[in-house]
Specification:
Nucleotidyltransferase, domain 5; ATPase_NBD; ROK; globular; 2 domains; 287 residues; ROK family protein
Length: 287
């Protein structure tokens, strides 16, 4: 990708972001609020508008991450809860016709994991799990160097698994703070930075729930590396200790001893991962 220019697009439920990628994201990354409840035509016009701002004759492809499932064969997104009008819309065909370059579409959590695999914490690994922890919980899985999507594109939805009296996402996402403590993650983070003991205790509890979720992921996948992304990555120092403590009773010591868990250091992991959908596994950015 050092010579080829690929546009990576992060289609989020709140914002739309895009950048040109070769070995890294070339500045500037363009961003704008997304009218998520708009019509199909509204959403397409916003996607066209942001791509039109940066495309040039050297661009050879476009990759897009969407907040929903993507059919592995047709590449058509579905169950896009936060942007309902693009459900069952063949974005790939529409964009290929408009721009005349190859287009790839993938779930946004998968793009995050793929970006970490090619450019970030997963560069030295063959198997990683990328956890995007924000309003919800998404997980992208790389197994033996390949993106694992499942038959219907729904692999990695660990947040939907029953846990305690609810499910994992209830306790391992930004919703934990509103569900359990009737506050917001932003406010808790601000107070934790100020040294507020109550806020720090909330993060420690959050870390114990995250550790329980990671144990499940390890029992299923035995992955080498887990990367935390999304809004929760900034608060990693506040919950990492309790997270590791919750992992202490994991049944397989060899797996735990070699496990790497860290917060993402990539600023534009989803954009990088969307662009890297055009990359073969062997063409990873080396450390």
């Amino acid at each position: 990708m050092e010579k080829a220019q690929i546009i990576g697009v992060d289609l989020g439920g709140t914002n739309l972001r895009a950048g040109i990628v070769n070995k890294s994201v070339r500045e500037p990354v363009v961003s704008q609020p997304l009218y998520a409840q708009g019509t199909r035509a509204d959403i397409l016009e916003q996607i066209f508008g942001i791509i039109d701002k940066i495309i040039n004759p050297g661009v050879k492809g476009i990759g897009i991450g969407v907040p929903g499932l993507v059919d592995p064969i047709s590449r058509i997104p579905y169950d896009v809860v936060n942007i309902p009008s693009i459900n069952e819309t063949d974005l790939r065909a529409i964009l290929e016709q408009r721009y005349g370059v190859a287009v790839n579409i993938e779930n946004d959590a998968n793009c995050f994991a793929w970006g970490e695999f090619h450019f970030g914490a997963g560069r030295s690994c063959k198997s990683i799990a990328g956890l995007t922890i924000g309003t919800g919980l998404g997980t992208g899985i790389i197994a033996d160097g390949k993106l694992l999507t499942g038959k219907h594109g729904g692999a990695g939805e660990f947040g939907m698994i029953s846990y305690l009296d609810k499910n994992i996402e209830y306790y391992v996402s930004g919703r934990f703070f509103s569900n359990v403590y009737h506050t917001t993650g932003e406010l808790v983070y601000k107070r934790a930075l100020e040294g507020n003991p109550e806020a720090i205790n909330m993060y420690e509890e959050f870390g114990r729930h995250l550790g329980a979720a990671i144990k499940l992921i390890l029992y299923v996948l035995d992955t080498e590396c887990i990367v935390i992304g999304g809004a929760a990555k900034a608060a990693f120092p506040f919950y990492s200790k309790s997270m590791w403590e919750a992992l202490a009773d994991f049944g397989f010591g060899r797996s735990l001893a070699s496990l790497k868990i860290e917060a993402s250091s990539l600023i534009n992991a989803n954009i990088l991962g969307a662009a890297a959908l055009h990359l073969p596994t062997a063409d990873r950015c080396q450390q």
